[in-house]
């Protein structure tokens, strides 16, 4: 792993590096360098070009994430609220890593350049190729038990939208309870996982997967319309700057949610609600409900109009599909 990371950090400038130069910088033989290059291509889908007489290079420069630079660029408030920032090359899942690290301080953020088993809700997979997108989890600590956290995934999604809007991304929408859409396609997913007891203190791992520059070859397993930021922005986008902006929003938002609940986030949710007014299907564990989405209530429950009545649903085991959306697979 360490070697792969080192070789990629050398190639990240997008220039040619000869096999001999790489071998001497890495303290390896030329054939060992070749094996590492093959691993990058075959296992991590990084298309290293090999040109006789010139060496190896990436088709374009690649920005790897650096913790020190991110911390230095954070706002004073976010820096104060950050427990620790850890950047890993490859993890099973950033959520899993935090869930298995019980002594980690509140406000810890773990970021991975690659997830081997990135996850969505209810066992679904989150496609997470190396160095292309952002995958990170933030540990929030809350008093008062899980019941107070029903709207947290909405608050997190609103905070992500605020951070992206501040960086010039337009046409963002929110799909209850945890998706961020760009031009109607899935751009970002939020996954909250809780540890704690009813009424007691709670540790919440908030995972965010955001598509920045997804290689189409890596995305063949995504079974619903998706997009990434690069397709909608004219200039190349810095993952480093994006992550800093996201943490600037998310770290204070956790504290705000603890003090004020969903209230400071409601207006933005309603403004960006991508399904309000549309015919929808709600996939419940035992049945499917058809109706018209009518926004959310003050707790973040989904409102559905059906047979002239309004019903409210809390997220848990529910999946929402709009009438026009293809019925893509769900794991259960
Ligand atoms: P729900 O409405 O139940 O949350 P969902 O399809 O949005 O349904 P999530 O658990 O939020 O489910 O996300 C997992 C799903 O997202 C996968 O099943 C796949 O369809 C899609 N997906 C996986 N990886 C990506 C990605 N990198 N970008 C966009 N979509 C993805």
Properties at a glance:
ATP binding; repressor; EC 6.3.4.15; five-stranded antiparallel β-sheet; disordered C terminus; BirA Bifunctional Protein, domain 2; SH3 type barrels; biotin--[biotin carboxyl-carrier protein] ligase activity; 332 residues; alpha+beta; biotin; 27% strand
How would you characterize the overall build of this protein?
Helix content is 30%, strand content 27%. Helix 1 (2-11) packs across helix 3 (30-44), helix 4 (67-73) crosses helix 8 (239-260) and helix 7 packs antiparallel against helix 8 (239-260). The strands form three sheets. A seven-stranded mixed beta sheet has the order 3-4-5-9-8-7-6. It has a five-stranded antiparallel beta sheet with strand order 13-12-11-10-14, with no helix packed on it. It contains nine helices and 14 strands. Mean pLDDT is 92; it is low at 328-332. The relative contact order is 0.12. It has three domains: 2-57, Winged helix-like DNA-binding domain superfamily/Winged helix DNA-binding domain (Arc Repressor Mutant, subunit A); 67-272, Bira Bifunctional Protein, Domain 2 (BirA Bifunctional Protein, domain 2), CATH 3.30.930; 279-331, SH3 type barrels (Roll). The protein is of the alpha+beta class. It binds adenosine-5'-triphosphate (ATP).
